[in-house]
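Hey L., structure's done. Input below.
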Amino acid sequence: MTEHRFTDEELLAWLDEMLPAERMAEVEQAVRDSASLRQVLAGLIRRRDQGERSVGDVWRRERLTCPSRSRLGSYLLGTLEADLAAYIDFHIRTIGCRFCTANLYDLEQAAASSPATANRRRRFFESSAGYLNILQD
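Output:
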């Protein structure tokens, strides 16, 4: 823990914009107000840029727990298995992943902006259901 109220991990997550919005604002205000906190950040950036990385750093920076955009789309459509849908819900609503939340919002906006989307979705599911019925016969 630094001499401030933020851990080094939180400060690095702030740099990568991976904290919930409220915590991002809190860290940003503290960074603006504190020269010593800016020095701590500069040291963390140097250390990170020199290649000193933990498994956790790689995990967070490479977004290994984030679902793909296509999985987020399937989540929106309600076509995922219950366990995977529950994970994505947890990842977005509880963890508060800003990256995935932004992706999901973008997908929602794209779906809402196209009046043909609902019709296309209905036709897709009808054709898939029909195809599966043919295979079962």
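Residues 8-61 form one domain. Helices lie at 8-15, 21-33, 35-49, 55-61, 69-77, 82-94, 98-113, 117-136.

-- N.
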